[in-house]
Amino acid sequence: MTARPVLLIVAASDLEAQAYRGWCLENIAAHYDVVLACEKEPTWQRPWIIDAEVADPADEEALLAAGRALARRHPVAGVMTWTEWYLVPVARLARSLSLPTTPVSALRRCRDKAAARAAFARGQVPSAVSVSIRSETEAREAAQRVGYPVVLKPAALAASMGVTRADNDDELPFAYHHAARAAGRQVESPRVLVEEYLDGPEISVECVTHKGRSSAVAVTRKTVGMPPYFEELAHVVDAADPVLPRVAPAATAALEALGVTDGVSHVEMRLVDGRPRLIEVNARLAGDLIGHLVQSATGIDLARAAADIACGHTPDLAPTRNRAAAIRMIYPAYSGTLTTREIDTDFADGAGWLDQATFTREVGDRLVLPPQGDMFTARIGFVITTGATGAEAQARATEAYRNLTVEIAPA
Questions:
Q1: Which residues of the chain have pLDDT under 50?
Q2: 253 vs 113, 214, 374, CA distance in Å?
Q3: What CATH homologous superfamily does 326-411 map to?
Q4: How far apart (Å, rounded) are the C-alpha atoms in residues 291 and 255?
Q5: Measured distance CA(146)–CA(356) in Å, rounded
Q6: Contacts 24+ apart (CB under 8 A), 220-228
Q7: Domain map (residue ranges) of the chain
Q8: For 252, which of 141, 201, 214, 322 could close a Cys bridge (C-beta 3.0–4.6 Å)?
Q9: Are 6-99 and 103-122+199-322 in the same CATH fold?
Q10: Distance between CA atoms of 151 and 143, rounded to whole angstroms?
Q11: Element (H, E) at 336
């Protein structure tokens, strides 16, 4: 028995996860004894865990066995994950251990964008027109009904993988096959959606739900690019963002419509003519270190909040800071082999507002941009900066980006 509560975390264990999720594990380990279930023997996680079981979290029977084994050795008080693909299996594991969790049915709705759209319609949450299709012919018919431009996307993926815009009939076949190939890699739903293109700034609302009551704690302004794709290039969180009160009701209504009862969620939307329209709900901590930005800007620790809720405790959402933080992703200009990646050391040493400059790829690595690749095959790393306002944090991120040297040998 230990003096601190024991939390079981189910998560991916690769080095990419270390760069983007290491802060979550470190923050949680400051307050909980962590036991880990992951697909490989832990390496970088060791300083922050007390025990582990190796199991493929996508294999529900293997995950249940691993979770039960850890629960026999430790008094597990909660179970959580920040990995999108593991939401449903982890909820089932929590239920089997009689621990708090959002219902499995609600998480399945979150994971299936078609089911989520239907739930939004029932709950009168403003969303996008969406049609589920299974062939290029159906895609063309749906696009003509919805009206161009349209967005084609897999029903059950994340991180903008397979998401493509088509502006007319000529562009539709490529968009359909790009989305269908990505959807085919996901066993939960092989379907493709044809959706109305929401024309306006993209944001996300970071929300916390405990025992059915949701609070919106921060807004993330997002920069997407590489058309016709929607690669996420940059984010900024400003503690004083004036749009938060305006979009919070739509975000919390979306969580209620889906049936989310417990956890931290990342609610994506666009502002169309200044009004929120829902894109999707990710019922877990946001990726791309957005939670780290939230903590830097507001002082609110979303990783700890997720852990507290998983253990049945009320999270502390009181802000202690009032500033801004930004992240800019490092992408190559074209696909090829990475030959140089560095930041000017004199600049980095003198920029007190440069929070991180992290490279996730090594010299010699092959980088592949869409449509052949995605964020996992293309990104080289990121820079994180702080400032008094969102505009200042973003400007500093741009300045840090200009002090990078990245060279690619073309394919």
A1: 1
A2: 16, 9, 31
A3: ATP-grasp fold, B domain (3.30.470.20)
A4: 18
A5: 43
A6: 220/286, 220/290, 220/293, 220/294, 221/390, 224/160, 226/331, 226/369, 226/370, 227/165, 228/164, 228/165, 228/166, 228/167, 228/171, 228/175
A7: 6-99, 103-122+199-322, 129-196, 326-411
A8: 214
A9: no
A10: 9
A11: strand 336-343
